[in-house]
Hints:
By secondary structure, this protein is mainly alpha-helical.
Amino acid sequence: MNWGWFEGLLRAVNVYSTAFGRIWLSLVFIFRLLVYLVAAEKVWSDDHKDFDCNTRQPGCTNVCFDHFFPISHIRLWALQLILVTCPSLLVLMHVAYREAKEERLREIQGDNYHRIYPNPGKKRGGLWWTYLLSLVFKASVDLVFLYVFFRLYRNYTLPRVVKCELPPCPNVVDCFISRPTEKNIFTLFMVVTTCVCVVLNLIEATYLIGKR
């Protein structure tokens, strides 16, 4: 997957962000997106191939893998990154709308043109609400995904061995997860950075409300 457009999006949003927003953007880009692209994808690339069960019963390994990994960590993180950065796109669209409106008025009124938005990127009026709601949405998305990960993978950890007795397995079989320690380390890292991002979103929302 090509994540290059996310980098461009984050750079553009940085222009209209507060100091806390710039810290959040740096955290998302460096500690979440880059770690995901450089390391996490490779760590989970062999999760199905190297998921071994001590049986040769056809279909048993696939059924057990699907039971213990209903949704891959890597796909959940990809969806989380997409959803958490989309609200920033709404802020850019709102600023672009203001600029386009100013341009239309300039063309219509000519020399008598009076600016509605002296600074289209200044967080006033509707843009203030758009920015605030984007912060709430981003924090909510991260909290929801933290809950989903906790429900799917208890305590955010993967055991070294899981026992499976689902059909068509002939009996209780032991299945071994590939590189569980490495995966647990990356999972803990992503959980911690997600929590920090949530705190930054709440601090920035509080700052906006207090400043207003």
